[in-house]
Design goal:
The complex is a heterotrimer of chains A (about 400), B (about 80) and C (about 300).
Chain A: E1 3-5, H1 23-29, E2 46-58, E3 61-76, E4 81-95, E5 109-124, E6 128-139, E7 142-154, E8 160-173, E9 183-199, E10 202-215, E11 230-244, E12 249-260, E13 265-277, E14 281-292, E15 332-344, E16 349-361, E17 377-389
Antiparallel strand pairs in A: 2-3, 2-17, 3-4, 4-5, 5-6, 6-7, 7-8, 8-9, 9-10, 10-11, 11-12, 12-13, 13-14, 14-15, 15-16, 16-17
Chain B: H1 3-20, H2 47-60
Chain C: E1 2-10, E2 13-21, H1 24-44, H2 53-59, E3 67-68, H3 71-86, H4 112-118, E4 128-130, E5 133-135, H5 149-163, E6 169-173, E7 176-181, E8 189-194, E9 202-208, E10 211-217, E11 222-225, E12 228-231, E13 245-252, H6 255-268, H7 272-278, E14 282-287, E15 292-295, E16 303-305
Antiparallel strand pairs in C: 1-2, 2-6, 3-5, 4-5, 6-7, 7-10, 8-9, 9-16, 10-13, 11-12, 13-14, 14-15
Helix pairs in contact in C: 1-5, 5-6, 6-7
The chains are: A mainly beta (about 400), B mainly alpha (about 80), C alpha+beta (about 300).
Chain lengths: ~400, ~80, ~300
């Protein structure tokens, strides 16, 4: 008996919006209850442990070293409920970060521990999901508690998903230097997002976040440091993932624009290339570019000729309302290069190793001059992790 | 309205228009979604990796957030 | 890890729900709900039950009264209307009356007069369908959901299994198959395509981890007279059976789609291959000389030649 493969014209694959090809299939899928549950709880649970080692430095002096073990668990409770949570324990040791390179000062070596945990529970419906989560973080002089709720809604064809999130955080701030310090900070956060499948190989996301904070923002370990008692932030994030079918690789890109009422505008541009090597290995090089402007009340390292460092000119004769010398509020640019290796031993077990190098330079700021008089800042971080799926 | 906020608003509107144009390129049919389900195509990424890295950047740089709500604060910023 | 097959009778066919999982009790409960759903649809759209919505609609034919239908029935009628348009009028749910002229058991062909009497009672374009109310204008007109009822039941049964959290298995209603998900070890289910002329053999096989498979053939109900085969798939324009293909099998994301495509392909005769190609479905068509034609779009599973082992 003859077995003949039918050749089909190239026009079959045209993909203009609204073309008639596949009309019967499309009509069938529009029948309610014919497609399986789209949004359901993850099929597999997961336990992951990760260990981070972080070390930063400025020329001439090693600064902070952090080691942080952490654990993450994702447990589906049924086809419609899932719970996830994580715990991390940072051990911070080393000298406090410098403010203004010029001040060498005998900053004592400090150790600190931070413990943080979070739990989230999610309910999955056919085209939507709802979640609520809490997180807590504790250091010896800083406590933070936050609660958040979120919801997501998918279109019928599952190609578009809307996300909304609302969060409240309440922080308590103390100081080793000043035992009488007992300040608070309260933050409200609202996020809207949409994720769209553009093609079978492209996914894009747009998130807009508004954050309102009221309370204590100054750094109790720095002098002088007086920051406004409120800070509002606006953030726009766009992400695009593209899969190359022929290479089996995926490129993940993102751009984030940040603006806050301290006067800081920041841009973050990141990209990584996920390249599978054979069935078991994956290598992912990554690059991140960052640039920020200085806060309105940041002052350059030029000091009062009479009083001297750390006070800026005119500090006592004409006291400014807000002031800070924190290098983190200056204008600078930063580059991170990273490389990650992942191994999938069996369908259930995998492991990964990621190494990143971070360099921060005032002169790398984009769109303006960097803050003068500051030393470069570098950091290296390494993460090693193990995952089990169940 | 101050200039940066105006830029943000314009960027939002443009991006929203692009995302909502609906007819953009060729949204996949339900049976073509295989590649989109791959772990490397999801927006979230590795949960612990993200938590670590966003925490580090939040303590070394001023910008933070934008990826989701509910992270809570820390004494590093 | 157990692999359980739950057999039952429905819609005049041998049916099976197959599931794989750890807890046989849970599998049994899920299968039982899925089987209930199949029976629900069978009763709701049965011509043989006086209280079914189809019987109510048919009883009101020619009376001038329209019958209100619920959302599920409305969506199925809309689907049938779309199929009528997309098949150039060949798929017609009013064509069921033709069975009155054809007696497949006795093997009798109808007389011209018998067919002429029935032709005015057919034609979807005659039906008044608006605002979820339907009216058949002439007495004797009938709606028949047999053309996609079994396939719709397969899809709905699969949805019930998915809602129960099941992920590995399939629903097979007399050869109309909807796959829930791969086997528990991740492998595919292998289905054989019935050989149109040999009851004990298959002509091809296809491996599936999702989607649906449906076949139409001239071997299900037929008789042969004077060397000519008369099968139960009747062209509504003439009242006579089609004769170009002995079997057409289609895979598609949903069973209603696969079933509609295979039936319309049989009705289209020589234009079947062109029709199936424009619908972006994977198909296997066997003509009456047993020549086999197949095509699969890029991502679809391939039909594999030969008897399944």
């Amino acid at each position: 008996m003859a077995w003949v493969e039918v050749a089909v014209a190239a026009t079959e694959r045209q993909s203009a919006c609204g073309d008639k090809a596949g009309a019967i299939i499309a009509a069938a899928l529009a029948l309610p209850g014919v497609l399986a549950h789209a949004d359901s709880a993850p099929e597999h649970g997961e336990v992951a442990v990760k260990y981070l080692q972080y070390k930063d430095s400025q020329p001439g002096l090693d600064r902070i070293k952090v080691t942080a073990p952490s654990i993450y668990v994702l447990a589906p409770l049924s086809s419609q409920w899932a719970v996830e949570g994580s715990l991390v324990s940072d051990s911070v040791s080393g000298a406090t970060p410098r403010y203004h390179t010029a001040i060498s000062g005998a900053t004592p070596r400090m150790t600190d521990e931070r413990h943080a945990g979070d739990v989230r529970i999610t309910r999955y419906e056919e085209r939507s999901s709802y979640s609520v989560g809490i997180s807590k973080s504790k250091e010896h002089d800083y406590d933070s508690s936050a609660v958040s709720v979120g919801a997501s809604f998918s279109s019928d064809d599952n190609n578009r998903t809307w996300n909304i999130g609302l969060g409240f955080a309440s922080d308590k701030i103390g100081s080793e230097n000043d035992p009488t310090l007992a300040e608070r900070k309260r933050t409200t956060e609202l996020m809207f997002g949409v994720t769209q499948a553009l093609t079978a190989n492209d996914l894009i996301q747009l998130n807009v976040t508004y954050n309102r904070g009221r309370g204590f923002y100054s750094d109790p370990y720095k002098e002088p440091d007086i920051r406004p008692r409120q800070r509002d932030q606006s953030i726009l994030l766009t992400r695009w993932n593209h899969h190359f079918s022929d290479l089996g690789a995926t490129v993940r890109t993102s751009y984030r624009f940040y603006h806050d009422t301290f006067g800081i505008n920041a841009h973050t541009l990141a990209a990584e290339w996920v390249q599978p090597l054979g069935a078991m290995f994956t290598v992912t090089p990554s690059l991140r570019l960052y640039s920020q402007s200085a806060a309105k009340f940041y002052f350059d390292p030029v000091y009062d000729p009479t009083v001297g460092a750390p006070y800026p000119p005119g500090y006592f004769t004409n006291p400014p309302e807000f002031i800070s010398a924190d290098q983190r509020l200056s204008a600078f640019g930063a580059v991170t290069v990273g490389l990650k290796f992942a191994v999938q031993f069996t369908p259930d077990w995998s492991s990964d190793l990621k190494m990143e190098r971070y360099e921060q330079r005032s002169k790398w700021r984009v769109g303006g001059a960097g803050s003068p008089g500051l030393d470069p800042f570098s950091a290296t971080f390494v993460q090693v992790g193990l995952n089990k799926r169940f | 309205m101050p200039t940066p906020a105006r830029h943000l608003l314009a960027a939002c509107a443009l991006a929203a228009a692009a995302a909502l144009s609906g007819c953009a390129l060729a949204p996949p049919q339900p049976w073509e979604r295989g590649n989109l389900a791959k772990p490397e195509m999801t927006m979230g990424g590795d949960a612990l990796d993200q938590r670590f890295v966003q925490h580090i950047y939040g303590s070394k740089e001023n910008a933070s957030g934008g990826y989701g709500v509910g992270g809570g604060g820390c004494g590093c910023n | 890890m157990s692999s359980c097959g739950f057999r039952f009778q429905a819609m005049s066919s041998v049916c099976e729900v197959r599931l794989e999982g750890d807890d046989e009790g849970v599998l049994g409960e899920a299968a039982s709900l899925a089987i209930d759903e199949v029976h629900r649809i069978e009763l709701k759209y049965s011509r043989y039950r006086a209280d079914s919505i189809v019987s109510l609609i048919n009883a009101a034919a020619g009376s001038g009264e329209s019958v209100a239908v619920d959302d599920e029935t409305a969506s199925l009628i809309d689907f049938a209307a779309q199929l009528h348009g997309l098949s150039d009028g060949l798929f017609d749910i009013t064509s069921g009356v033709l069975r009155k002229a054809w007696d497949f058991r006795a093997g009798r062909t109808p007389t011209d007069a018998e067919l002429q009497a029935l032709l005015p009672l057919m034609g979807w374009s005659l039906v008044a369908w608006r605002d979820q109310r339907i009216a058949l204008p002439r007495a004797g007109m009938e709606l028949d959901f047999g053309g996609f009822g079994k396939e719709y039941a397969a899809d709905r049964a699969m949805s019930v299994l998915a809602a129960q959290g099941q992920r590995h298995g399939f629903v097979n209603l007399g050869g109309d198959i909807r796959v829930l998900g791969p086997r528990a070890d991740g492998g595919a289910w292998r289905f054989g395509i019935q050989h149109p002329r040999r009851a004990d053999a298959t002509i091809a096989s296809v491996d599936m981890v999702d989607g649906a498979l449906a076949s139409s053939g001239d071997y299900e109900r037929f008789f042969e007279r004077d060397g000519r085969r008369y099968c139960h798939i009747l062209d509504p324009r003439t009242g006579w059976p089609v004769s170009s293909w002995s079997s057409v099998s289609v895979t598609a994301p949903a069973c209603v789609a696969a079933g509609a495509l295979s039936t319309i392909a049989m009705l289209k005769g020589e234009q079947a291959l062109e029709f199936l190609s424009t619908q972006r479905a994977a198909f296997l068509a066997v003509d009456t000389s047993l020549r086999t034609f197949h095509h699969e779009p890029a991502d679809a599973r391939r039909f594999v030649h030969g008897d399944i082992q």
